[in-house]
Design brief:
- With 850 residues, the chain is mostly beta strands.
- 2% of the residues lie in helices and 40% in strands.
- It has 4 helices and 59 strands.
- It has an 8-stranded mixed β-barrel with strand order 38-39-40-41-45-44-43-42.
- The protein is elongated.
- The N terminus is likely disordered.
Length: 850
């Protein structure tokens, strides 16, 4: 017989001629051998394992008449171009607390605060690290409102804009909550912001300075003065009363005024103790508002504005200007780990060194590194001369000298430095240098080199940096001071820090696809992978401070809260749950938490612990979570850790939102995730999706799920808390990269774009067109399966007339101008939202089509 349309109900088994003799259990009537669909009953199909199956329960739901697909970009916040000007502050801006304070403190603060100028527009972005709660309209409740205020979702980032009124900006400085924009002809615009209110407030004035300065300089950690200068004149601006000091020039010992290329202002101990340092072709020149002398010549207290030359040491601590191998200083950078108990002030000088006899060869850029010390040697003109060394000080004022420390050549011999910065890297700390290098032959391909230990290994080989836009795109540094606390690139990314955190400068908007998305009270929370430099498998690996947590506000993803907790995984089926942990061997703490609106304990962290791993579980990535409510009403939490599937019943906590907390007692009282299945040992679980219960099942099951290991699909069935079974669903050798589900309809997606129904295993789509593969990921939105591949984004479309759906391209615009397309793209389906993230962190919300 050629078609299996009937069977002997009275017999215990049947022999099928067409497929060979196979004994079948007649309680499983789907098990009929076949070579193709013609050998199966009407409406049935021949599965990949060559058995006839009835796919009606797994068929695609028609979506041809669904609303048109729309794509809206929501991050980054800035346009894909470099800002004209950029500035940041190291000082936090503090504001009075109210009943809206999420931290429950007397004050709440914003840090960092980063200002940009783009044409006529000034924008300021502030990050509230601890978050704050506000009214639904974004305002802060005060007075009678506090009595009834119950709290709106916390805000972690806010942004304001203002206008220059057609003026041309020359420089910008951010000092705490005030933004200063220097304009042509000595003009100055001053802006301020108020949390919860739209727009910057302020005004612009012409002729604030009697000359035409081109640069503003700030003195971090000091609110006394700001410096404005041109190439020949400078003046101090009082931040207290807005007064402007007398315009002055740089002249030594009564000589003629000199031009200069750069001037900085340093706070060395408090108001009126600033040091001014000017750089020109002749070297360094220093003056002090405290009327210090910088050479121990026995003279009396000098007048304010008394400039002295300062000896520039070579690293060998020799001083022979006639035979110096270095050119004049070209630039100065400072870095100070002021946030720790012990200050580590360091200064870098950019100089050039010429090779060949008499210095007539190629020029090579060097960074001479100096550190502060209280002992410059004896005598002053000894082996390492102070730079600068105040020798006349008020009683009790500390002595700060500069001691030569290292000589670095961050760029290759055939490259020159376009830009550079110094920073302290933690843990350690160690001093790092980041240099932007361009080829000397006129090429435009920029390389980014990093020296991870500038004190001890200044000539080490350039490190391998993460392949992210932070290190691979044209940049603009903060130049309102010498500390480079802010950075922007031409993809619209903005980076800033309250202090220079090594090479990272945390992003204020998402700058790469997140590994994890979790729903929070204030929107979505995304976590990105740690950044590694050097060999991640070597014992000497250098770890950059991770940018882990980004939260979504009305301005897109930005800010960070609870960033001491590394979010490692979300939980499918429970979008507000996630896994946080510390993989450090000394800590090794992993807990499943729920994001709440308000803290439940004295820890003041808006999380509560739901579960932790049993001590017998060897917890290691990758991590995947899923939760499902069984037909018996039990909430079952499943977590995959590498090749192990763990599970636990968390019904008590899931049903009581006020139970638990985030403290030691809550940790030990939470349920324990225990090993329940290891389908394919030593092979990571790479995809996991829970299946809702079958109300008709008798007896009802405890839990169901599909998972992927090594490209193979397994169906997991739990009959009770301890009895779990994993059975492979053979897809004929297809390489599966993900499983998703439309209700109880499982879907297995392959690298080629073929989708199979689960558990029936019949195909419900053809492969993607050749230009669209390989597939990078799948996501389910409603009844529709979406895929992102190297060729774009696609949705599986069907009108119900055919068992096979067709792939339909989804237009995504605008695209990042980095030319990377969909490389490393990720699709997420979180709480009915379908989100796409591209290589550069550009995010899109995909609506309709489902």
């Amino acid at each position: 017989m050629t078609r299996a349309r009937s069977w002997l109900l009275a017999a215990a088994a049947v022999c099928l001629v067409s497929g060979g003799c196979v004994c079948l259990d007649l309680t499983q009537p789907r098990r009929y051998r076949c070579a193709d669909d013609t050998q199966c009953a009407a409406g049935w199909r021949c599965g990949t394992d060559h058995f006839c199956v009835d796919p009606s329960g797994d068929a695609l739901q028609p979506n041809a008449a669904a609303p048109q697909v729309t794509v809206a970009q929501f991050t980054p916040a800035d346009s894909p171009s470099l800002p004209d000007l950029l500035a940041s502050t190291r000082e936090r801006a503090e504001f009075p607390s109210s009943c809206a304070d999420a931290g429950h403190g007397s004050k709440w603060s914003a840090e960092p605060i980063v200002a940009q100028v783009r044409g006529d527009t000034v924008s300021v972005t502030a990050v509230f690290r601890s978050g704050r709660e506000s009214l639904p309209d974004g305002g802060l409740p005060t007075g009678p409102d506090c009595a009834s205020f119950t709290g709106a979702p916390p805000v972690y980032q806010e942004r304001w804009e203002g206008s220059l009124g057609g003026r041309r900006a020359l420089d910008v400085a951010q000092i705490a909550g005030a933004t200063y924009v220097l304009t042509e002809s000595g003009g100055l615009c001053t802006f301020s912001f108020a949390p919860g209110t739209p727009g910057l407030t302020g005004s612009c004035k012409n002729g604030v300075f009697s000359f035409s300065p081109t640069r503003l300089r700030t003195s971090p950690n000091d609110d006394a003065y700001m410096l404005a200068h041109s190439s020949s004149t400078y003046a101090l601006y009082s931040l207290g009363d807005g007064g402007v000091g007398q315009a002055s020039q740089v002249a030594i010992f009564g000589g003629r005024p000199m031009s200069f290329t750069e001037m900085t202002i340093q706070d060395v101990g408090g108001r009126d103790y600033e040091l001014l340092t000017a750089v020109n072709d002749a070297g360094l020149f220093v003056t002090s508002l405290a009327r210090h002398r910088f050479e121990p010549d026995g003279g009396g207290t000098p007048a304010i504005g008394f400039w002295e030359p300062v000896q520039t040491n070579e690293v060998a601590c020799q001083r022979d200007p006639a035979s110096s191998e270095y050119g004049a200083p070209l630039g100065i950078r400072y870095v100070d780990d002021y946030s720790n108990l012990t200050a580590n002030p360091v200064m870098g000088l950019h100089v050039t060194q010429r090779s060949g006899f008499g210095g007539g060869g190629l020029a090579e850029d060097h960074v001479l590194v100096y550190r502060a010390t209280n002992d410059a040697g004896f005598p002053y003109y000894g082996s390492c001369v102070p730079l600068p060394a105040p020798s006349s000080n008020p009683p009790g004022f500390p002595f700060f000298y500069w001691q030569s420390l290292a000589d670095c050549a961050p760029c290759e011999a055939d490259h020159h430095m376009r830009d550079w910065r110094l920073a302290w890297q933690f843990p350690g700390p160690t001093l790092v240098i980041e240099a932007r290098c361009l080829p000397n032959d006129g090429g435009t391909v920029e390389t980014v080199n990093a020296v991870q230990d500038a004190i001890n290994e200044c000539r080490s080989e350039p490190l391998t940096l993460p392949d992210i836009a932070r290190f691979t795109r044209p940049s603009r540094w903060d130049r309102a001071d010498g500390y480079a606390n802010a950075y922007a690139n031409d993809l619209g990314h903005l980076f800033g820090s309250a202090f220079t955190e090594g090479l990272t400068l945390p992003a204020l908007t998402l700058d790469r696809p997140p590994d994890v998305l979790v729903q929070t009270a204030s929107g979505l929370l995304g976590a990105t992978a740690e950044e590694l430099i050097g060999d991640p498998f070597g014992s000497q690996q250098a770890v950059l401070i991770p940018r882990e947590v980004f939260r979504q506000s009305r301005h897109g993803f930005g800010g960070s809260g609870n960033d001491q907790l590394n979010f490692l995984s979300g939980v499918a089926g429970q979008p507000t749950w996630g896994l946080v942990g510390d993989p450090d061997p000394d800590e090794e703490l992993f807990i499943v938490v729920e994001n709440t609106t308000r803290p439940l304990t004295g820890e003041f962290i808006p999380l509560r612990i739901l579960a932790h791993f049993n001590a017998a579980v060897s917890v290691q990535p990758p991590f995947l979570g899923a939760a499902t409510r069984s037909a018996l009403g039990r909430e079952v939490l499943m977590f995959a850790s590498n090749d192990v599937l763990t599970a636990v019943d968390v019904t008590a906590l899931a049903d009581d939102p006020n139970a638990g907390g985030f403290d030691e007692a809550a940790y030990f009282a939470s349920p324990e995730l225990e090993v329940r299945a290891v389908p394919l040992p030593r092979t990571p679980i790479t995809s996991l999706v829970p299946i809702p219960p079958d109300p008709a099942a008798a007896p009802p099951l405890f839990a169901e799920a599909f998972l992927v290991q090594g490209g193979r699909v397994f169906q997991v069935t739990a009959f009770n808390h301890t009895y779990w079974k994993a059975e492979e669903l053979d897809l004929g050798g297809a390489e599966v990269i993900a499983v998703v589900a439309d209700g109880r309809r499982g879907r297995a997606g392959t690298k080629e774009g073929r989708v199979y129904a689960l558990p029936s295993r019949v195909p419900v789509s053809e492969a993607l067109p050749g230009s669209g593969t390989p597939v990078l990921g799948y996501a389910q939105a409603g009844a529709t399966t979406f895929a992102v591949a190297s060729g774009g984004v696609f949705r599986l479309r069907t009108d119900g007339s055919s068992p096979l759906g067709t792939w339909e391209a989804v237009a995504v615009t605008p695209m990042p101008p980095d030319g990377r397309g969909y490389q490393s793209a990720r699709l997420f389906s979180i709480a009915d939202e379908l989100l796409l993230f591209l290589h550069a962190g550009w995010g899109y919300r995909i609506s309709g089509g489902r």
